[in-house]
Design brief:
Mean pLDDT: 96
Strand content: 15-25%
CATH class: Alpha Beta
Radius of gyration: 16 Å
Largest sheet: 4 strands, mixed
Low-confidence stretches: none
Oligomer: single chain
Shape: globular
Strand order of the largest sheet: 1-2-4-3
Number of strands: 4
Number of helices: 6
Order of helices and strands: HEEHHEEHHH
Distance between the termini: 25 Å
CATH architecture: 2-Layer Sandwich
Structural class: alpha+beta
């Protein structure tokens, strides 16, 4: 399947806001925090047209206990092998992926690499431009999503390291 990287769409934040409202309404009181992350959350950054959201909860078990509400919204749990995280992709009517919901525990929220990278890219236009150019080049070269992700790792690690250093946090691998 072709990897589609598009120019930034100013409608992405509104799509994320709608998904956040929908999730909070369907699961009142479950999420401590719920934010738009990923490339679609960085103004001007080219991205795959998938809205990434990250939520914090006191307990992952509380989410699995109420998973029926997520299923009703079109989210289905996918085991990614990542410890301490639940992952729920959502596909649209066309069968194409439209959303990712990452659920993590509240005690890890402040140091989540995805949030730190988002903030770093929002604050450093040159870093966002480098990342966008890499993604476009990779999307033109491969249709393998695993290869696409692996090929971004070195730059993502560099940018996350810079973001963590800026907050006085130690470097950690971007692979969980």
């Amino acid at each position: 399947m072709t990897i589609e990287v598009r120019d930034y769409d100013p409608g992405w934040p509104a799509q994320a806001d709608a998904a956040v409202r929908e999730l909070r309404a369907a699961l009142p009181g479950l999420f401590d925090d719920l934010e738009h992350i990923g490339s679609t959350s960085v103004p001007g950054l080219a991205a795959k047209p998938i809205i990434d959201l990250m939520a914090s909860v006191s307990s992952l078990d509380a989410v699995t206990a109420r998973e029926d509400a997520l299923v009703a919204l079109g989210y289905r749990r996918l085991d990614t092998g990542m410890r301490g995280r639940l992952f729920y992709p959502r596909d649209g009517d066309s069968g194409r992926r439209t959303h990712h919901l990452h659920v993590v525990t509240a005690d890890t929220w402040e140091t989540r690499n995805e949030r730190l990278l988002r903030d770093h890219l929002r604050e450093h236009a040159e870093a966002a431009a480098r990342y966008g150019a890499l993604k476009r080049g990779l999307a033109a070269r491969t249709e393998d999503s695993d290869e696409y992700t692996r090929a971004k790792t070195d730059l993502v690690q560099e940018l996350v390291d810079a973001a963590r250093a800026g907050r006085g946090l130690p470097s950690v691998t971007v692979w969980e």
